[in-house]
Automatic annotation (TrEMBL):
One biological process term in Gene Ontology: polyketide metabolic process
SUPFAM superfamilies registered for this protein in UniProt: NTF2-like
Organism from which the protein derives: Calidithermus terrae
Secretion signal, residue range per the UniProt entry: none
Name of this protein: Ester cyclase
InterPro entries (alphabetical): Cyclase_SnoaL-like (IPR009959), NTF2-like_dom_sf (IPR032710)
Domain of life: Bacteria
Length: 145
């Protein structure tokens, strides 16, 4: 079951994040899922919030790409460490495009049931990203050491 759950999470990240396929949200997230990352940003916690979150990300970073570095599963939970990269070419949560490349690392924990994601937590901090994009040092400060 753990390997199946890891493959579902990888499919989600590839389809929704790398390819911008928001239709895959309906396939891979349970109807009553809780996306705590969307919730923190004031978006609905369910599928609709997830779609809005990824639409915002792709509007701000049209070339958004995530690379999974580590993926570990136990039971119904999958933990993922990933690297995100994108060029800030559109408005993102009120910050005008800078044209700069941004790189972030993310930690996520996803819980699955019956082949769908039912809950998601993430440690990539959008508020920190916004501060970095709008700071005098700009996106260069968003790059990991």
């Amino acid at each position: 079951m753990s390997e199946v759950n890891k493959s579902i999470v990888r499919r989600f990240m590839d389809a929704v994040i790398n390819r911008g396929d928001l239709g895959a949200v309906d396939e891979l997230l349970a109807p009553d899922c809780l996306d705590h990352v969307a919730e923190v940003l004031g978006l609905p916690a369910g599928r609709e919030g997830a779609k809005r979150l990824y639409a915002l990300l792709h509007a701000g970073f049209p070339d958004l790409e995530v690379t999974v570095e580590d993926c570990v599963a136990e039971g119904e939970c999958v933990a993922v460490r990933s690297r995100w990269r994108g060029t800030h070419r559109g408005d993102f949560l009120g910050v005008a495009p800078t044209g700069e490349e941004v790189r972030l690392e993310s930690l996520e924990l996803l819980r699955l049931r019956h082949g769908r994601i039912v809950e998601r937590w993430g440690a990539a901090d959008a508020r920190t990203l916004l501060r970095r994009l709008s700071s005098p040092g700009g996106p260069g400060s968003a790059r990991p050491p």
